[in-house]
C-alpha cells in the first residue's frame, strides 16, 4: 500500500503529511485479533534485552528516563534538605533578638544559599526530574526523545549543585543574596560570587537542555491517536513550562555573562562611574526571576490536575479552561518582572503597567483553582492521601495568592516590599504552589516509580506536621513584616515588637522540618519485604497506570492507540492489548531501542525513532563541561579552556556515534499493519525541532544583550559617549558579508547534497567554515581599537562581538562536522538530518550576525 | 481557515498580541519619559496601540468562536478522538485566551488614564 | 560565637526578654499599622480593606473545598461546574481587580507629588545615612536622623555611595531605593509629631541589619527653630573634660573622616558630628544615645556593626575615651 491508499479519518486530519504506509487508524477488528502468546513472549524477551539497564559500575552509563529521572529527583531532594537545614539555622539565629549563634557574614551566606539552592537546585530541577520520570509514562511512550541529553543534563546538575552548595562548608559561599545585585555582588571579595555565577550558569544550561527535551517529548512522542485535545493536562503544563524556560533562562545567562565579564575583566557594565548601571542586572535577573516563579508553580499544579480527577473519579471539568490557564499564565508571567522593582524609583507609569499585568495574572490562576473545585463538585470526592496534600496546597496557595493581589498594588508594595510580609507571601505561594503538590504527587505516583506504596499513616502524620508547622512558621511573618522587620537581617533589636513573632516562627519551622523528615523517611525506608502495589491502586484513568508490576525496563510493552483523555476508564481492552503486544512496536528484532514519533497535533504515526542507549559520553561530556565552568572560578584559565575543548570533543563523539545513524532499512514494520520510516530529516525529525527550540532560547539570550544596549541608551544621558570611537564600519560591513556568504554556503550545500551533487556539497561545506572564520576576524578587527575597560559602551560592543563570534565558531564546527560525516559516508543524499539541523542553526545564526553587526557598527551612530 | 483548524500557533495569537502590546507600551513610554518628551505622546501612543491590539484580539476571538462552532452542537468538552473535536477544542481554547488577553490589554492600558506624568 | 552587641544594650537577658515578648508588640515604632503620615495612613487603611476581602475570599474558596470533600454533596452538573469557573475565575476577579487597580493607580501619583517646601538629600552610605537639608548655599549636614515638619509634603532626594540601600520610615510612608549612579526621589507628609524608627530594607552587605535611622516629625514652628540651630557651628566645649575630649578627637585624627563645623575637623567620609549630641541614637539607630554605649562604640565599632568602616580606638586609654564621649555628647 502507498500513502495515497490511506483514507483520512476526517477532513482536516494531517494524515496525508505522514510518510507512513499501511492502515491508519487501526480498525476494531485488527485491535481485537489476539496475539499468539509464544510470539508475545519472544517479543518481550527481545524487547527486554534491548532496554536492559547496565549493571554494576556501568550503571552510571544508564540513560533510561526511569533511572535518570530517579537520580535527578533524589539529588534535587538532597539539595532541598541541605537548603532546608540552612533555613533552620537561620531560624535559630532569629529566634531571639541580638542572638550570637551566627555572625553576619555566615548568616548572609546562608540566606543567599538557601534561596539559590531552593530555586536552582531544588524547585526547577525537581520539575525536570519529575517530568523526565513521568512524561514518557503519561504518554505511553518508551523514553524521552533524547535519553543521552537527559543524562548529560543530570550529570551537569549534580556536578554544579555539589560545587555551589558545597561552598557553604568551606565558608566560601556567595553572600550577596540569591538576586546578586551589583554593586554589592560585583564588588564582593572572595570567590563566592563567581561560584554563584559560573556554577548556576552551568546548571541553567542543563535546565534548558531538559526544557528542549520535554517540549519535543510532548509534541512528537505522544502515542498514536492522542490528539492535542486528548493530551493529559500534565503534558500541557510541561509544554508551557518548557516554553517559559526557553524565554526566561537566557536573559539570566546573558546577565551572568556580563556580570562575570565585569568580575574577571573589569568591564564596567554595572559600574555607574564608567557609564554602567546596576539596574540593568535587576531587569535581566527579574525577567528571569518572575517567570521562574511560575515555572516552579505550573508543573506542580499540573500534578494536582492529575490527582484531582482521580480523587473525584470523573474527568477534569473545564479542560479547555485549564489549558487557557496554563497558556495564559505562561504569557502573562513575562509581564510581571518589574513588580520586584517597584521601589527602584522607576516612573509611576511604568510601575502601573507591571502592576496591571500582575493583577491580570490572577485571572488564569484563579480559573485553575476553580476548575479543581468544579471537578470535585462534578464527581464524588474521596480524600485519598495525595488529595489531602493537594487540598492543603490549595488552602496555602490561595492565601499566598491573595497576599499577591495586595503586593501587586504598587503603593501597597512600597510599604511591605523587602519585609517579612514578602517572606511570608513567597513561602505561601511556593509551599502551596510547589512543595505540597509535589509531595502529594510523590504519594500519588510512587507506585509507578517503585511498584510499592508509601505509608498512609506516615503520609498523614507528615501532612499534618507540615501543614501546621508551615502555618505556625509563616502566618505570623505577615505581621512581623507589617511591624517593620526587613528581610535579610541577621539580627534585630529587642524593643521593636518582633520577639514573640520570631520565636513562634522558629518553633513552626522545626515542626515543619519534622514533617518533611517523616516524609523523607517514608520515601527512603527499606520496602523490600512489602508486597507489590496493584497496578492501578487509585483507580486512575491515565496511561502511567499501565505500568508493569514488577518493573520492566521498556516503558510500555507496546505503544497504545489512544482514543480518550482517560484511556483506562474509556478503553476497557487497553491494558490487556498493551500487555499482549497488540499495539505498536511490540518487538525489537534489531535489538535497538525504538519509540514512536507522531505528528504534533493529531498524533498520526510518522516514524520509528532509534534512541541512543547507555554510554559514557554524557558523563564524560558533563565532567569536562563542569571543568570549563568551575575552574575559572579559581582563576585557572588554561585547564579550563582545555576542559572546554575536551567537552566539545566528547559531545562531537557522542553525536557522531549515537545520532542520525543510517538505518539498515528505510522502512520497518511498526505493528498493526503499519510500515514506518526509520530515518527522517528536517522538520519531521525530533532533532530538527530540538535545534529549533534551542535556538529560540539562544535568540532570547542575544535579544537580552541587544536590550542592554538600548537600556543604557534610555537610562544614561551619555550613552554612547559623544567623543567615543565607534567600530570600523567598513570592516564590520565586510564581516556581515562574509557571514552571509557562510550562511549561503550552508544552505547551498543542503540543496546540492539533496540533489546528489555530493562533491559540490562538500566543496560548499569546506568554504563555509573558512568564510565564517574570515568574518570573525573582520568583526574583531573592526573593534580592536575600542577599550572595554574604559566605559560601558565599548564593553557592550565587545560583549556583543564575543557572543556573535562564539556562535559563529560553533556554526563553523557544525559545518565541518557535516563535511566529515559526508566524507565518512555517515551522511548521504537521502540521509541528511545533520545538514538540515546545521542549516537551521545557520538561519538563526545569520540573524544573530546581521543584528549583531548592526548593533556594533550602525545603531550606536544613530543613538 | 483549514490551516487554522489544526494549528497550535493560531491558538496563541491573542496572548502573543498581548505580549507585543505590553512590550511596545512599556518601551515606548520608557523612552518618552527618559528623553523628556511631552507626556501626551505617551498617552496618545499607548491608547493608539491599545486600540490596534484590542481590534486584533477581537478579530482573533471572532475567528476562534467560528472555529469552536459552539452553537451547532453545544460541545464544550471536546473529548472525542475526532478531527472535529480537536478543531473545536483549539477554537474554544483560542477564544478563552482571546478573552483573557482582551482583559489583560485593557488592564495594561489603565495606567495611562490614571497616572498623569513621568514621576 | 561572641554576641556582637554587649548584653546591656538590649538591656535584656534570660527571662527578661520573655517578659517583653508580648508587651513590646504594641509599641509599633516601626510599624506599617501605626501610621503617622498621610501616605502611611492611606496604605494602612487600604491594608485593612484588602485583609477583610482576602479573608472572605479565602474562607469562600476553602470552605467550598471542605464542604465538597467532607460532606460529599450530590454531584453537580458539568454546566454548573463551568458556571463556577466562569463566575469565580473570570467575572469576579475581573471586577474586583479593576476596582483595586484603578484605586491604586490613582493613589500612586499622589504619593509621589512634588514637595511643597523642604528638600532633604539623603545618601545611603555603608552603613549609615548622610542627611543634608538643602537650602541656598551649603546644605545643612546631619546623619542617621531625618526631621520633617508635619502638615506639609517634604521632598527627599535619594542617592547612594557604594551599594544599593532602601530608605523606609514605615510610619510616614513607603520606601524608595537608593542606587549608586542614580538619583531617586520620594516625598513624605508626616501628620503626627513624634519619633519613628526606619530601617534600610535593601540588602546591603554585612551590616544591613544595623542600618536604621530615626524619623522625627515636628510641628512646623519647632522644626524651623531646630533647623536654624542645626545650621550653626558646634558648641564650644565648656568643661575641662570636654575640652580634653576635643583635643583627643583632633589628636586621634577623627577629623580625617568627620566634620565638626567650627573646628579643624572637616572630614567628609563619615557622618557629620556638628550636633551629634542632640541626636536620638548612635551608630545608625543601633545603640541608644548613652554615654557607656558611646564609649563602647568608640573602642570597638566592629563588635557592634560588622564590617564598619570606622577603625577601633581600643589603643586609646579608657579615661581618654570617657573624655571624648563627654565632648561628643556635649555637641547638641
Automatic annotation (TrEMBL), chain A:
A biological-process GO annotation: electron transport coupled proton transport
Catalytic activity as recorded in UniProt: 4 Fe(II)-[cytochrome c] + O2 + 8 H(+)(in) = 4 Fe(III)-[cytochrome c] + 2 H2O + 4 H(+)(out)
Catalytic activity, EC: 7.1.1.9
Subcellular location: Cell membrane
Keyword Cytoplasm: no
Any GO molecular function: metal ion binding
GO cellular component: plasma membrane
Top EC class of this enzyme: translocase
Annotated ranges, domain Cytochrome oxidase subunit I profile: 45-575
SUPFAM superfamilies the UniProt entry points to: Cytochrome c oxidase subunit I-like, Cytochrome c oxidase subunit III-like
One of the Pfam families matching this protein, by short name: COX1
Regions crossing the membrane: 71-96, 116-139, 151-175, 195-219, 231-253, 293-312, 319-339, 351-376, 388-410, 430-449, 461-483, 503-524, 636-656, 688-715, 727-745, 765-784, 796-820, 840-859
Record's signal peptide: none
Membrane topology summary: Multi-pass membrane protein
Pathway field: Energy metabolism; oxidative phosphorylation
Keyword terms, alphabetized: Cell membrane, Copper, Electron transport, Heme, Iron, Membrane, Metal-binding, Oxidoreductase, Respiratory chain, Translocase, Transmembrane, Transmembrane helix, Transport
Similarity comment text for this entry: Belongs to the heme-copper respiratory oxidase family.
Protein name, UniProt field: cytochrome-c oxidase
Lineage summary: Bacteria, Pseudomonadati, Pseudomonadota, Alphaproteobacteria, Rhodobacterales
Automatic annotation (TrEMBL), chain B:
Keyword Transmembrane (UniProt): yes
Keywords assigned: Membrane, Transmembrane, Transmembrane helix
Segments passing through the bilayer: 12-34, 46-65, 89-115
Source organism, top-level taxon: Bacteria
Name used for this protein in its record: Transmembrane protein
Lineage of the species this protein comes from: Bacteria, Pseudomonadati, Pseudomonadota, Alphaproteobacteria, Rhodobacterales
